[in-house]
Automatic annotation (TrEMBL):
<dbReference type="Pfam" id="PF01420">
    <property type="entry name" value="Methylase_S"/>
</dbReference>
<dbReference type="InterPro" id="IPR000055">
    <property type="entry name" value="Restrct_endonuc_typeI_TRD"/>
</dbReference>
<dbReference type="GO" id="GO:0009307">
    <property type="term" value="P:DNA restriction-modification system"/>
</dbReference>
<dbReference type="InterPro" id="IPR044946">
    <property type="entry name" value="Restrct_endonuc_typeI_TRD_sf"/>
</dbReference>
<comment type="similarity">
    <text>Belongs to the type-I restriction system S methylase family.</text>
</comment>
<protein>
    <submittedName>
        <fullName>Type I restriction enzyme, S subunit</fullName>
    </submittedName>
</protein>
<keyword id="KW-0680">Restriction system</keyword>
<feature type="domain" description="Type I restriction modification DNA specificity">
    <location>
        <begin position="5"/>
        <end position="152"/>
    </location>
</feature>
<keyword id="KW-0238">DNA-binding</keyword>
<dbReference type="GO" id="GO:0003677">
    <property type="term" value="F:DNA binding"/>
</dbReference>
<dbReference type="InterPro" id="IPR052021">
    <property type="entry name" value="Type-I_RS_S_subunit"/>
</dbReference>
């Protein structure tokens, strides 16, 4: 295990880009991801790959989700892509336990800056251990998702 800053761990640590609300639809080819997850769909994307998505502004400030695929990531989120020595899904799991919202600027609207996040230190094990943890937690996440679907089905019946 070694302590490293997010700037050292990530090949990309930057905010997404704004998208006109007219381009965000109920249906589309690519999810539009803000600080608190999917907020609609668009016919274009500005991200392709795997990353931890960190909520950057407002109530979602400090929320962390893993994303894999193509999406349009908005300015309300920070994209954290790991280098080859680290696993983006592991980083998302780890950061989701760190209460990143506490790092927000003290203002009327909470906000995390990329500069603040880049200096945040994480203690990471070897890539092999990261991958084992992701496999284990991924199995548990899938079971939780199936249970939630079953609960939704039973409530609708």
């Amino acid at each position: 295990m070694s302590w490293q800053t997010l700037a050292d761990v990530c090949t990309r640590l930057s905010s997404g880009k704004s998208i006109p609300s007219l381009k965000v639809k109920k249906n589309g080819r690519f999810p539009v991801i803000g600080g608190n997850g999917i907020r609609g769909y668009a016919d274009e994307y500005n991200f392709s790959g795997e990353c931890a998505v960190i909520g950057r502004q407002g109530a979602a400030c400090g929320n962390v989700h893993f994303f894999s695929g193509k999406a349009y990531i908005t300015e309300h989120a920070v994209v954290a892509c790991t280098n080859t020595h680290h696993n983006a899904h592991y980083l998302a799991y780890l950061l989701s336990t760190q209460q990143l919202g506490r790092l927000s600027a003290q203002s009327a609207q909470p906000g995390l800056s990329v500069k603040t996040l880049s200096r945040f230190e994480v203690n990471l094990p070897s890539i092999q251990i990261q991958e084992q943890v992701v496999q284990l937690l991924g199995t548990i996440d899938k079971k939780i998702e199936l249970n939630n679907q079953l609960n939704d089905y039973l409530l609708a019946a």
